[in-house]
Amino acid sequence: MAQLLAQSGLPPLEARMLLERVLGQTSAWLIAHADEAPGAEAAQAFAALAERRRRGEPVAYILGGREFYGLEFRVAPAVLIPRPETELLVELALDRIPADAAVRVLDLGTGSGAIAVTLAKLRPQARLTAVDVDYAALSVARANAGRHGVRVRFFCGDWFGALSGETFDLIVSNPPYVAAADTHLAMGDVRFEPQRALAGGMDGLDCIRAIVANAGAHLRPGAWLLFEHGYDQAEACAALLEAHGYLEAQTWPDLAGIARVSGGRAAPIGLTVGRQVGRIQT
Ligand code: GLN
What we know:
Elements: H1 2-7, H2 12-23, H3 27-32, H4 40-54, H5 59-63, E1 65-68, E2 71-74, H6 86-95, E3 104-108, H7 114-122, E4 127-132, H8 135-147, E5 152-156, E6 168-173, H9 206-215, E7 219-228, H10 234-243, E8 247-253, E9 259-265, H11 269-281
Parallel strand pairs: 3-4, 3-6, 4-5, 6-7
Antiparallel strand pairs: 1-2, 7-9, 8-9
This protein binds glutamine.
């Protein structure tokens, strides 16, 4: 096995993940059998997967899965591959969802459903709603909800388009936020991912602007809006939150120390209206 892995020309971890899949074995088994050679059929199957990877296809798409927050999620090219930094958003959301209350939580732009399904799994009393504009993404998200045995209400729609008149105790989102001209979009795994899930207009903030501007009407007074953003967008996000009258607006760093999630609380109704009107018109 060790020889086959070394010959693949792939980083060791990636090569092992592909071989584990081909053999249907764990990494512990692979280590214990490092000196053995796999059968011809397995070697051939491995070579085919290794070739796809060498051509750039993300490991998560080749395997059709990725772990997020300790849970295994199905992923496909219709959805963004869940990222470790998004676990911060999940943690902040969990801090705000009591374990014993049927609070209403909304995930905007759910993609694979990683955020909504994780929250539903860890807070079984919560009532999750998840929306995405892309049907193909929603079918992946539905499969993930089924896989983890959780109930999530899924809607196809543009941000709040399918949610007229509904209010929530918490709204979370990992929207597209990369600037359209960012060269990052054409590099590595990212170039295989749906651009629609990544690119957020000229400065990357188009979706965040839409979410911050419209979430107020769907949040109960005092409820939190939390969203992920790019490494250089914290200031712009704080300004947006303030302009729209959110209270306690703040930003949290991810494990790499990068300002990654921002949010604020919906103001009591009278206060929101007063500030929103004054600020937005200027
Ligand atoms: N963090 C992702 C990236 O840099 C972008 C995710 C997103 O746009 N929501 O590729």
